[in-house]
Amino acid sequence: MDKRHFLQIGAVLLGTAFFSRYINGSSETMASADTKFEVTKTEAEWKSILTPDQFQVLRKHGTERAHTSPLDKTYEPGTYVCAGCGQALFTSDTKYNSGTGWPSFFTPIEGAIGTTVDRSLFMTRTEVHCSRCGGHLGHVFNDGPKPTGLRYCMNGVSLKFEPA
Ligand code: FE
Question: Which positions are catalytic?
Answer without folding.
Answer: 153
